Amino acid sequence: MAPDGYAWWYVDGISDDGLRAITVIGFIGSVFSPYYGWAGRKRPHDHCSINVVLCGRGGRWAMTERGIDAVVQTADRFQVGPSALEWRDDALNIELDEVAVPHLTRLKGRIVLRPLAVTAIEARLDPDGAHVWRPFAPVARIDVEIDRPGWRWSGHGYFDANFGTRALEADFRNWTWARMPVEDGAMTVYDAMRRDGSRLELGLRFDREGRAEPHQAPAAAPLGRTFWALKRGMRADAGYRPRQEMAMLDVPFYSRSMVRTRIDGEETVGVHEHLDLDRFASPLLKPLLAFRMPRRTSRKI
User: Fold this and answer.
1) Residue 94 maps to a domain
2) Domain of 212?
């Protein structure tokens, strides 16, 4: 990995009853880490974390950054402190043992994501390939078992990864991403405004065997501003007004939501994110991020 590079592995799931959702992200050279930024974006493996967000009743947030002595990475396993993501038995197995902030309660449990198929898609998000997206499993089932009341459920899931050699804010002003389950598989949309003024508009539709084809999604419709006044949009059929079903994460520069929309005549509920990198680049945000994202410097796991 480049000295100032990054990688993250992203998993989300929505329960079959639509009442709960979860995201888990494993970071190397965490793109949102104030400590990585303050360190000059050097030694990415010294800035790793596994972020878990429980959304819905009993929701919690945990993201503890750890140094290189607490990181173990092999071809099949990525471990940061006591938590890990491991590919085993044709499934992604996630072991969680984190502390929620600011509640200081323990989040411990197990998640298994079983892809219906694994794709071979790799997409450049910028012309020179400094930022790459890999949608490993756009169609999957997920089983969640967290040691909290009501947090044993199954639902539809998703698994992808992003890799890069430069800071996101160096090359992008903002982006919107969404993944939506549909009857025959899933669709994804990536919309971004690059720093050079060019736009990324990438739509893909995946079947249940992992085959993908380009998809021209309809134009974006207003989704409604977040609590922090982020202006968002979501692709939707003409005349349809997409709406947020649940706020999954809402911070000054970033929003992740469960969103309902209609595309090509099919109504669906999936995961939508909007990232404002102009806001993120503000030095005023870094101390706030450090409050929500403690760093453990001990050599002990």
Assistant:
1) yes
2) 6-295
pLDDT at position 136 is 97
For 35, the 3-state DSSP assignment is: helix
Answer for the pair 27, 3: CB distance below 8 angstroms, yes or no: no
Measured torsion, CA atoms of residues 219, 222, 226, 230, in degrees rounded to the nearest 10: 60
Q: Which of 17, 24, 210 is nearest to 111 (CA)?
A: 24
Dihedral of CA 16/22/28/30: which sign? positive
- Please indicate, yes or no, if residue 301 is contained in any of the structural domains: no
pLDDT, average across residues 169-174: 96
CA distance 78 to 64: 15
CATH code, domain carrying 98: 2.40.370.10
The answer to the question of residue 117 being in a domain is: yes
pLDDT in tens, 54-77: 999 989 999 999 999 999 999 999
Nearest in space to 138 (alpha carbons), one of 186, 76, 101, 178: 186
Distance CA 2, CA 41 (A): 10
How many separate domains does the chain show? Answer: 1
CB atoms within 10 A of CB 209: 10
Q: Predicted confidence band at 103 (pLDDT cuts at 50, 70, 90)?
A: confident
Residue 125 lies in a domain: yes
- At residue 179, the 3 state secondary structure works out as strand
| pLDDT grade for 285, boundaries at 50, 70 and 90 | confident
